[in-house]
């Protein structure tokens, strides 16, 4: 059963650069507040946004460390492989890959809410037979249900948490 976080204390606030959009989606799946930049947003602006929003800025771009404002805000990941990045974040930042699984919209990054009866009607009929929980994004109206895709994603998150 999916649990929703009592507070955001267990989840991290992160900003992923353009190279890490896929990682940001997985961070959201784990329950972390992970935003991404507008395409082409300059490094200095991203660093300023991370500071203003109290976020860590994740990147693979080493030269960004030359910016004075990067100290304490920027984490440069070594690998371009998603699984290695996940383990690196777990080890370097003590990131919890099971902080609050499936509590945020994978697209909008907004905390999801319990789906109402009208939302459930938009779920495929076969999936409505599942025990739930059924969730909806209050921002984009995307509906989520615990199908086989969620089981596969959860298994991957659990693997990253214990590798």
What do you see in this structure?
The chain is α/β, with parallel strands linked by helices. Strand 6 (135-136) and strand 7 (143-144) form a beta hairpin. The chain is built from six helices and seven strands, in the order E-H-E-H-E-E-H-E-H-H-E-E-H. The model is unreliable at 1-9 (pLDDT under 50). Helix content is 33%, strand content 12%.
Question: What can be said about this structure in brief?
Answer:
This protein has 163 residues and is of the alpha/beta class.
Question: What does the secondary structure layout of this molecule look like, with pairings?
Answer:
Blueprint: E1 13-16, H1 21-29, E2 33-35, H2 43-52, E3 56-59, E4 74-76, H3 82-93, E5 113-114, H4 117-120, H5 125-128, E6 135-136, E7 143-144, H6 148-162
Parallel strand pairs: 1-2, 1-3, 3-4
Antiparallel strand pairs: 5-6, 6-7
N-to-C terminal Cα separation, in Å?
23 Å
The spatial strand order of the largest sheet comes to 2-1-3-4
Query: Could you say which overall geometry the principal axes of the C-alpha atoms support?
Result: globular
- Helices and strands, in order, run as EHEHEEHEHHEEH
Poorly predicted runs: 1-9
Helix run count? 6
Structural class: alpha/beta
Helix content: 25-40%
**Main β-sheet: number of strands, strand sense, barrel status?**
4 strands, parallel
Beta-strand proportion: 5-15%
The average pLDDT value, as a whole number, equals 90
Strand element count: 7
